[in-house]
Design a protein that fits this description.
Elements: E1 8-15, E2 18-24, H1 28-31, H2 34-43, H3 51-66, E3 72-76, H4 82-96, E4 111-115, H5 135-142, H6 153-162, E5 170-174, H7 177-180, E6 206-208, E7 216-217
Parallel strand pairs: 3-4, 3-6, 4-5
Antiparallel strand pairs: 1-2, 6-7
Helix pairs in contact: 2-4, 3-4
């Protein structure tokens, strides 16, 4: 009988003065997947998302790869890149187990990483949490000269390079994702961060791994 995994903690740094811990508890249904356990262990320190959400990303990416669904992979709001990296590693492993046919026979999937790489964009008065605390207050108290929840682009590139993802495998797009998330006229359906009011762009041919639409072909 396999011993259950122990509860482990990881630190999330929103800024130099604002840090928190995420605890990853044992979850039997998830922990029995040896592949996910390995991939999660390699990516968990580069994401703010929970073990459960990362498992959802893993399942969605594996579904897409195993069924040969065409499309690149996009994440909007990547922080240090952990969620997109998990998706990329999952797709890479799954596609190595099956012949490359159709759309995949002539090209490889790319990862599109959209972020300001300077932290959250300016919040509006509508950006409040359940305690009615405004995002503007968080940023005023905890940001590094206006930068909060940020990771440098070079840091993100190093994380992906360590796992074998180079320039031919990914596109890093810097800026406000509401303005930049239009590669070749294709747009993901929703972005991390402050939800853009009234934003409903056209969508096609990208596989979206944002929190709102994990694994949806947009």
């Amino acid at each position: 009988m396999t011993e259950p995994l122990a509860s482990t903690r990881r630190e999330v740094a929103y800024s130099s003065t604002h840090r928190a811990e995420i605890e990853d508890y044992p979850i039997a249904d998830i922990d029995r997947s040896a592949e996910f356990t390995d991939l999660f262990g390699r990516t968990r320190n580069y994401t703010m998302t929970s073990k459960e959400i990362m498992f959802s990303t893993y399942q969605a990416a594996r579904y897409v790869a195993e069924r040969g669904i065409p499309g690149d992979i996009v994440e909007c709001g990547v922080w240090r890149g952990g969620s997109a990296l998990l998706a990329g590693l999952t797709v890479r492993a799954a596609e190595a187990r099956r012949p490359r046919r159709g759309w995949l026979a002539s090209r490889r999937r790319k990862l599109w990483l959209y972020d300001t790489f300077e932290g959250m964009t300016a919040p509006t008065a509508q950006d409040i949490d359940l305690t009615n605390t405004s995002a503007a207050q968080y940023m005023a108290e905890h940001s590094d000269e206006g930068r909060w929840c940020y990771a440098d682009e070079d840091d993100v590139r190093r994380v992906f390079a360590f796992e074998g993802f180079g320039a031919q495998d990914m596109e890093v797009v810097k800026g406000d994702v509401v303005q930049t998330c239009v590669p070749g006229g294709r747009v993901a359906s929703r972005c991390c961060g402050w939800t853009p009011t009234g934003t409903n762009p056209p969508r096609q041919n990208l596989i979206c791994f944002t929190p709102a639409c994990r694994g949806v072909a947009c």
